[in-house]
Design goal:
This protein is an alpha+beta fold and 167 residues long. It has helices at residues 3-15, 22-25, 33-39, 53-64, 83-92, and strands at 27-29, 47-50, 67-77, 97-126, 129-159. It has a 5-stranded mixed sheet.
Length: 167
């Protein structure tokens, strides 16, 4: 991989833009079941069931009858969302079953800021000898782009029925 691309990705991760896990940032826990599930053993495999939005709610209600509902994440974004973000977060909270929905919302024109690497060479003399050095600077520049917005919805479960909590 190109070292400049790696450096840009690393800087973007440090800035917190490309390495955001939207599933984690938008998670709403169902109750204290999440705390007990996250303290338990972490599942090695997460079953992900991809559903159309029209049946997601009904499927989640059906799964909740025989599995422990841990919570859900819902968000809209034009960011790139890696498939591994879902399974990584599911393991983190002790979920071994996730229902997932991705639905197109809209395409729109949006001002997007990119960065360009500018290099300048400075020449001079030190102790009468010619020297030169390169200065690199990342400079932001705005561009109008068409972005596509999607709605993501994931419902997380722990397989098996949770013990009933007495009043």
């Amino acid at each position: 991989m190109n070292p400049i691309v790696v450096a840009v990705f690393a800087l973007t991760c440090l800035a917190g833009t490309a390495c955001t896990n939207h599933y984690k940032d938008n998670f709403q826990a169902s109750n204290s079941a999440v705390l007990s599930a996250s303290k338990g053993s972490k599942p090695l495999i997460v079953d992900v069931v991809v559903l159309p939005k029209s049946v997601h709610k009904m499927a989640a209600e059906e799964r909740a009858k025989s599995n422990t509902l841990l919570g859900e994440s819902r968000f809209q974004t034009s960011d790139s969302v890696a498939e591994s973000d879902l399974t990584t977060f599911a393991r983190e909270i002790g979920s071994d079953l996730a229902l997932s929905t991705k639905k197109f919302v809209e395409s729109k024109q949006q001002l997007v800021t990119h960065e360009r690497l500018l290099r300048s060479v400075t020449r001079g003399t030190v102790n009468g000898k010619p020297v030169s050095w390169v200065t690199e600077t990342w400079v932001p520049y705005p561009v109008m782009e068409t972005v596509t917005v999607y709605e993501y919805w994931a419902t997380f479960f722990r397989k098996g029925t949770a013990p009933k909590i007495l009043p």
